[in-house]
Amino acid sequence: MDTDKAEEFEELRPLLFSIAYRILGSVGEAEDAVQESWLRFERSTTEVRSPKAFLSAAVTRIAIDVLRSARVRREQYVGPWFPEPLLADPYEDPARSAELADSVSMAALLLLERLSPLERAVFVLREVFDFGFPEVASAVGRSEAACRQLAVRARRHMAEGRPRFEADRAEREELAARFFEALHEGDLAGLRDLLGADVTLVGDAGGKAPQLARTVLGAPRVARLLAAVLPVMFRIEVTCEQHEVNGRPGAIFRDRDGGILQTLSLDVAEGRIQAIRLVLNPDKLAHMGPVADAWALSEEFKRARRPAP
């Protein structure tokens, strides 16, 4: 192994993963794309003047190819599809911290799903990581003029789907703290006050875990569901561990043995919680640690809800 190449690669690994994850929405697939980019770098027999340019182009092209095949699978997916939860983005750039955090949110990644693979890659490289158009063009194998057009279309599609008044970090955290306090107390009125009128609660189980409902709409219904279900979950020793999920306030739910049951993430805008997204599919949770037996917990939950004889 070329030690210099390995050191250069390891230095760039956080950036490569962050590019791949935003294109793919999958932790496992992003890690595989990064590993494949290393193999291409290691095998390269020509002089690589810029490891960053070489590896960024390699991981982008690999991710585009994977995304094209993944889209066919996603069309056959059971129920709503969400990205795999990301608890911490390994790449940091103080000058672009806000853009990085926004671009990894569940809401942003779902907007990126509307774009073609090429539009998505161009948007990620240009708008999120501030690559110049010559670098973007080299990475995706298109002319600079074509990349500029792709970037314009991508920006337009992304802007159309964003809320008008997104909350800043302090507002999100303050609202989330009140939400989780009300959640633990089963405070129906308190929960309702924090939810937007058209709030949605959506779960991604992929047909591999039980869930009460795929989509619940409106503050009254969402608040009633949360206030009814969460106290029972806490009674069977499910814990709610507040944790940032995809750069937004969220939580990890675990069974009594520490197995991961689901993640929850909050979208906050206009002073209210506008969306609550749950990821329950065990395949999307396994990268975070041991996964709970959701089916067994579901049966225990049903027994706990039954009135005492």
Summarize the structure in short.
The protein is built from 13 helices and six strands. The chain is of the alpha+beta class. It has two domains: 3-161, Butyryl-CoA Dehydrogenase, subunit A, domain 3 (Up-down Bundle), CATH 1.20.140; 169-305, Nuclear Transport Factor 2, Chain: A, CATH 3.10.450.50.
Number of domains: 2
Please identify, by name, the CATH architecture of the largest domain: Up-down Bundle
Kindly report the average pLDDT value: 92
**CATH topology category name of the largest domain:** Butyryl-CoA Dehydrogenase, subunit A, domain 3
In percent terms, what proportion of residues is strand?
Answer: 5-15%
What topology, given as strand order, has the largest sheet?
2-1-6-5-4-3
Instruction: List low-confidence stretches.
Output: none
Number of strands: 6
Percent range for helical residues? 55-70%
Largest sheet, strands/sense/barrel: 6 strands, mixed
Distance between the termini: 69 Å
CATH structural class of the largest domain: Mainly Alpha
- Given the structure, what is the number of helices? 13
The quaternary state of the protein chains shown equals: single chain
- Rounded to an integer in angstroms, the radius of gyration calculated over CA atoms is 21 Å
What's the overall geometry? globular
Structural class: alpha+beta
The SSE string, one letter per element, is HHHHHHHHHHEEHEEEEHH
